Amino acid sequence: MLSEGVILEEKEISQAVIGRLPRYFRYLGELKDEGVERISSQDLSELMKVTASQIRQDLNNFGGFGQQGYGYNVEYLYHEIGKILGLDRQHNFIIIGAGNLGRALGNYINFEKRGFIFRGMFDENPALIGSRIRGVKVMPMNEIEHFIRENDIDIAVLAIPKSGAVAVAEKLVRTGIHAIWNFAHVDLNVPEGIQVENVHLSDSLMKLSYNIRKAAPNGE
């Protein structure tokens, strides 16, 4: 089991491993809700379509959680992975862009279940300013820096066209924002210490297109 006070920075963890942690967390949460108390790496492997060896290797990066002949305590592992992912604390976020994508993200209530609290939305379109998404008012862009500093905002979500994304990101950097979740179709270059997750929806769709073609008879 993971000992108290483990510092993850002591060991460089690959992005591939980190990318699998949310899946472990999700599956374990479902098992916990179903009343499952323990599970072997083999059974978890069959559920997740990841090899048992891969599961053990991934979890061993963080000290290991299983016991020989017992497997994993589902609730304990669920909560420990949540801590590794930083889900044991609240993250306040804002959305920049009150268009269709921004509104869809603002209406996604599952963020709150994971500790991500929707605090504000910003746009430069006068027609959208003053409207509300789940009680959160759309504010003008000239108020964003003050709002971030006064409301302990950790994460800014960019749901705007790429033409304005770089300038907005530069403004966010000046506020001391910790992380940017970027849906604009441009990769952002920000100073070291600010975390950026680029989400290119069209890239995901093209990957799906490739897999359709690959699975077709004769690759047609």
Automatic annotation (TrEMBL):
It is found in: Cytoplasm. Keywords: Cytoplasm, DNA-binding, NAD, Repressor, Transcription, Transcription regulation. Residues 23-62 bind DNA. Belongs to the transcriptional regulatory Rex family. One of its GO terms (biological process) is response to redox state. NCBIfam families: PRK05472.1-3, PRK05472.1-4, PRK05472.2-2, PRK05472.2-3, PRK05472.2-4, PRK05472.2-5. SUPFAM superfamilies: NAD(P)-binding Rossmann-fold domains, Winged helix' DNA-binding domain. Residues 86-187 form the CoA-binding domain. Modulates transcription in response to changes in cellular NADH/NAD(+) redox state. The keyword NAD applies. Homodimer. NAD(+) binds at residues 97-102. GO terms for molecular function: DNA binding; DNA-binding transcription factor activity. This is Redox-sensing transcriptional repressor Rex. It holds the Pfam family CoA_binding. It comes from Acetatifactor muris. GO terms for cellular component: cytoplasm. The keyword DNA damage does not apply. It comes from the Bacteria.
